[in-house]
Amino acid sequence: MASYAIKGDFIWTEEPSRFRTMRNGYLVVDNGVIESLTEECPENYDIIDYSGHLIIPGLSDLHLHAPQYAYMGLYMDEELLTWLEKHTFPEEAKYGNIGYAEKAYTAFVKDLLSGPTTRLSAFGTIHADSTLLLMRLLDEAGFYGFAGKVNMDRNSPDYLSEDTDVSISETIRFLDSAEGNIKPIITPRFIPSCSDKLLRKLGMIAKERNLPVQSHLDENLSEVEWVKELCPWSTSYSDAYDHFGLLGNTPTIMAHVVWPSDDEIALLSERDVFVAHAPSSNTNLSSGIAPVRKFMKNGVKTGLATDVSGGSSLSLFRVIQEAIGVSKLRWRIKDDSDSPLTTSEAFFLASKGGGAFFGKVGSFEAGFDADFSVLDESLINTPLDGLSVNERLEMYIYRAADKPVFAKYIKGKKVH
Ligand code: GUN
Ligand code: FE
Whole-angstrom Cα distance, residue 87 to residue 83? Predict the structure, then answer.
């Protein structure tokens, strides 16, 4: 069905400061793109009737690790570096076995499909074939976005470390083999895992092939100290990525950015780098609280991320809750000049803010891709009625975060 109109109660954000709503509206979709959102019933369109249901734009998960979903919810008593060594690296090594990868990635894609996420930028593992399989499974399920074969050639256990030249040749094989709607993205794990030679070469490949880049930045204090030792010539962690051509020469996502200096914030803003704010992960791994208000004040492009399995839920609704919650704590105990995020601001980051990495995604404005979820509020057990559309969404975010959405469309196609 190339053209149709969706009927229901719509809520979205065009800018962070406020929600827009339309009850009993019609979202007119032509070939996967939004033509209009109107109160008039459009003529000559098939109507898909979700009357009484809340309908929200697709949410974008700017950063998560598909291979870590298998153990999500375990091992939360560590900080980043010991967590990686003790739990993450041994699990990721299993993806050298394509049979294991198929089983684990099938479960991951199935569970992601029933939630509100429509776009994602995922890490795979160092294994090219397993990562290509992940991309195929996501594509077949109807998702759009990016996934990357991870690069690691130093400070990694033997069972999850690559020879530098093999890491490069496998990356090229991965790039040349990728097909479908999940596109490849250059994915150095982080500076401690990649030699200077590997980082330099990945920066060159990204530039030559005009490919996006994703990595981790300023997540944890011990990690930041380690990067200073590894790159004594750098003025900051961001400067180290920049030195290797990995900071915004092409579209770039940096996850976390909990401990940036003011100079780094200015550089991220100047380079149009997207920050993937992952508050659940930052709490679970005791990383800290990212200065999201400062990002917004300084024009840093920002979206939300689960960072599964540092984050312990696939649900971006839960990440919205946590983004609001940690911003309140930061404001109260760290910096009272940075006001907490409001519900509309956090929702904007999860929808149009992060969606901008993928194109015109995350709003109900004309010309945006028709990504949206239809919610089922009957899953919430309350006798309250007569709530406003805004109140219905707020309650859904807090009380139904991990429930399946009622229906989901990506680029106009029903996927769930
Ligand atoms: N830094 C390097 N690798 C990882 C990872 O897998 N998860 C998180 N949260 N941070 C990282
Ligand atoms: Fe991560």
Answer: 6
Rounded to the nearest angstrom, the distance between the alpha carbon of 143 and the centre of ligand 1 is: 23
Residue 1: pLDDT over 80:
no
User: Within the chain, what is the greatest distance between any pair of CA atoms?
Assistant: 66
Q: What is the 3-state secondary structure (H, E, C) of 303-371?
A: EECCCECCECCCCHHHHHHHHHHHHHHHHHHCCCCCCCCCHHHHHHHHHHHHHHHHCCCCCCCCCCECC
Q: Which two tokens stand for residue 414?
A: 């029903």
| C-alpha 91 – ligand 1 centre gap (Å) | 13
Provide the strand spans (E) within 67-142.
117-123
Per-residue pLDDT reduced to its tens digit, 96-135: 999 999 999 999 999 999 999 999 999 999 999 999 999 9
Which residues does ligand 1 sit against, CB inside 6 Å?
Answer: 65, 80, 84, 88, 189-190, 216, 219, 281, 307, 310
Q: How far apart are CA 178 and CA 62, in angstroms?
A: 20
Across the range 241-258, mean pLDDT stands at 98
pLDDT in tens, 253-273: 999 999 999 999 999 999 999
- 114 preceded by a cis bond (ω within 30 of 0): no
